[in-house]
Every structure is written in C-alpha cells, then in structure tokens.
Amino acid sequence: MDTNGRTAFGARLVQARKHAKLTQVQAAKGVQMAQGTLAQLEIGGKGSSYTVQLAELYGVSANWLASNKGKMISGGGGTPRSMTAQKLVSPKKNNDLENVIKLLTLFISATAQDKQHIMDAAEQIKHLRGDASNDETT
C-alpha cells in the first residue's frame, strides 16, 4: 500500500487515468466496466482482466500498468485512445458524432475490398477539396 492507502497497482491505475485526463466514470465507460469496480481497483486492486483495455484507453504500456516493468509510455507514443477520439469529433458539431458512428459501423461491417474502396473514395474527396497538402503520403 502507498501513502494514500492504495495498492501499487491501484496507484498506477490512477496515474495512468490522470495521464489520459479521464474521470473514473469516463474511463469505466471506455472499457464497459462499472465505475464502482474501477474505484475498487484503484484502491485495492492487484490486477484485473481489464488491464490491457485500460492501458490502451489510457495510452500507457500494459506491461507497466500490470507489473510496473518497463516504461509507463512505450514506444507507441502514449496517446490515450480517448484523446484520439476527442480529436475526431468537434463538440461544436452535434451531427459529427452521429455521422462518425454511422461511418464506423459501415466500415467495420464492410469486406476488405469495400474498405479499400471507402478509403480510396475518401482520399479522392480530400484531393478534390484541395486538402492534398495535409496528406501524409505526399
């Protein structure tokens, strides 16, 4: 237990969640866990079947989160998944979130060939709009 009465695992969970700038409620929703369960893990947890999912959500190394081995932020850049999602949808545009969800649902259910067609069409639209300067492949 640390000075706050938390287990070492619990303290790492809190540190990682704060790194991701998430509340317990947001984090629990992100991995489809009850907020009370996350609170219990942050106080007295010694491990969890959610460790890998939480590490991914928080943008930290699962190995570090589980065992305190290695670096907190691995070579992947350490961008919390929650931050990436926040950048995708502007809260000023209410329809954006609905459209992103619809598009992702269609994309997930598409065949590999259809996914490639969707990506090609998106690139063509991007180039037609004149956004080619933002294309990382050029």
Automatic annotation (TrEMBL):
<dbReference type="InterPro" id="IPR001387">
    <property type="entry name" value="Cro/C1-type_HTH"/>
</dbReference>
<feature type="domain" description="HTH cro/C1-type">
    <location>
        <begin position="13"/>
        <end position="65"/>
    </location>
</feature>
<protein>
    <submittedName>
        <fullName>Transcriptional regulator with XRE-family HTH domain</fullName>
    </submittedName>
</protein>
<dbReference type="InterPro" id="IPR010982">
    <property type="entry name" value="Lambda_DNA-bd_dom_sf"/>
</dbReference>
<dbReference type="Pfam" id="PF12844">
    <property type="entry name" value="HTH_19"/>
</dbReference>
<dbReference type="GO" id="GO:0003677">
    <property type="term" value="F:DNA binding"/>
</dbReference>
